[in-house]
Amino acid sequence: MMAPMILLILIACNVIMAFVSSLSAKPHNYVILENTFPADKIDDPTVINFSKKFRKRQFQLAFILTLLDLTLLIPMKDSSFMLLFFLLLYLTIGMNYLLTLRYIRKGHQLIIENNWQLPTQPIQIDTRLILEKNRKLVSPWWFLVSLSLIFFLSIVLYKQKNPDMAWILLITNGLIWFVMVFTWRVIRRLPVRPLTNDPKINQQYNDLTKFYWSTFSVFMSGLISLIVYIPLLTMTISTRFFTILTAIEFLLILLFCGASIWWLIRLRKKQDQLLTTSTTFRYFGDDYYWRYGMYCNPDDPRLMVPDRIGMNISINLGKIAGKIFLSLIPLILIGAMAVAFIPLYVLDYHPDPLSYEIKSEAVILDGPLVKAQRIPFARIQKVTLIDHMPNRQIRTNGLATNDYAIGHFQIAGKPAVLFVDHQSKPILTIVTKNRTYYYTNKHSTETKHLYQELQSID
């Protein structure tokens, strides 16, 4: 079941990246793929053909990568599967970037060959625009709505006798909320540049940007809270509502993705409509600083700048903080792969990955990704051997694959800790007052031996 789901995730990544990247080939502020074209050349057949060719190449690449992703359907060990997944994901990111970079160069060459270079104009200072740059910014008081929602959902979860999950919800959504507030603050501090000689158009353009982006950050701070909360709610409800809440969760995720794209594309269109009413578009020579698809200008005091697609905020890599941010990305990617791959590798190839030890009037269960569990004999209420795990399992912390289930779970509404290799039978269950433990050794004889030892304890 895991392979088809992850395959769908990769295919979705391919399609989404192709779609978002193709937006850069549609003119925005007369910019196509980081190259600014003269206003009267945007509809030139050569330029239109260049844009169409890039969009076509993006979706052709997505199709080729999808064919490669089908290798995930080949039967393999979990560690090999996870390693292949990350390699395919990083290949998608890398190939998408290289293709975009290639066409940025092609666009620059197209401008040079046709002698379409624009004269660089000095940056114009509009005092009134600077003073009124935030007049359409959504008030930060709206964040209190999403903050109230976070506390309300946490209290509901706490009252459902799930305090651990309530704290996880509060901390997770609190961090997300602070990120959204920080985003709003970045939007508020973004400096303005008059893009035309018409002050009215410049003001309207700036007002649109500030309103749409600040509204987006406020709206997402509440919607993400709901997306995080619903999976936690499914742990405590009856089975008949599980399917309904799962459907709501997927609908919210689709709403999150769809609303984000729709809202920001709507902003792009309105900005472009404004600029087409003016014939005095000002070019500041920014193409030079976007040569690699990322902004790098040591002389620009801004750390955060709007991207040229008009749908995001980018980092100025010319600043030290920008360089630190860029250097962290490969570390995060490698770290994510290591965290997912290494435990699975241990489970697949270690001779005894799920171990046990009887010591000091207690049995100790241990395995990757979860703290060793010490279970005093005095707390054990029941010990049994079963052939199959209960059907309804919800992972709260740990690992769940086709072959393994390691960590903290909710099973039939009760907390459980699993050290289970699904390929090994039988499964030992140790029932205590607060939770149930499920354990299998890689060698079934060892599991049975532990069962017999626990049974013999008075």
From TrEMBL:
InterPro entries xref list: Bacterial_PH-related, DUF5808
Bacterial Pleckstrin homology domain span: 355-439
Transmembrane spans: 6-25, 59-75, 81-99, 141-159, 165-187, 208-230, 242-265, 324-346
Stretches assigned to the DUF5808 domain: 298-323
Keywords: Membrane, Transmembrane, Transmembrane helix
Listed Pfam families: bPH_5 (PF10882), DUF5808 (PF19124)
Descriptive protein name: PH domain-containing protein
Organism: Enterococcus dongliensis
